[in-house]
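Phosphotransferase
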Amino acid sequence: MNWLEQLLGSEWELSPAGGATGDAYFAQREGQKLFLKRNSSPFLAVLSAEGIVPKLVWTKRLENGDVITAQHWLSGRELKPNDMNGENVAELLHKIHHSKELLDMLKRLGKQPLTPSLILEDLKQTVEFENFYLPEVLQALHYLEENLPYVDCAEKVVCHCDVNHNNWLLSSENQLYLIDWDGALIADPAIDIGMLLYWYIDEKDWDSWLSTYGLQLNDQLRARMFWYVLAQTITYTLWYRAKHNEKETNEWHSYLRQMITKISAD
């Protein structure tokens, strides 16, 4: 934490904020609270300006080239799974997907649009590398290949790609934010919408949720959502297996079997 003490001085009380990289910290002094992160994407400034993440207070570059960002540390809470049906979630996701500013910034950062064929090719290579030839995985890959011609979408937007309820922050002022943008991509909005609906919303409520978002459920959207959720399920199964997390691997493998059952039913 030396880089932080060097930057802020000893009068700030510092504590790790968790996260995969260990590069995020909370800092507080005399009632002022900040969330600090090392080497956040330049994308953060646009997200802050759009009101999608808590306000960016300052950005500073260290002598070694590292960039430190400080955001308001808000009192609030993460959303719970049953909060995800709220209109505020649908409205914020619509705002993100329709933001020209976010899209322009990701393009300037060199992000290329993610296509279904790129996803499938990457999955096949990973399955081969990991030698993970479970029957359900092979069946899912076959489905993805067979349906590839039907899921391409001309509209490519900024997708968060991890709309887990833990990444939604509701402030004590009732302002909703979507945080943790390290995996953001330019892609079909069905990636985010599909994950959110399949994981959190009863199917009988999909029409209502999509109406709030601003879309009508039709066969084409349904096919795209299913395709991406199936691909993501294989990805998570592989990822947790590589991390030797048996519990999560088994849970995602079980979910993959449920998805395969839907294919068989159709």
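thats it. The mean pLDDT is 90. The CA atoms of residues 151 and 223 lie 7 Å apart. bye
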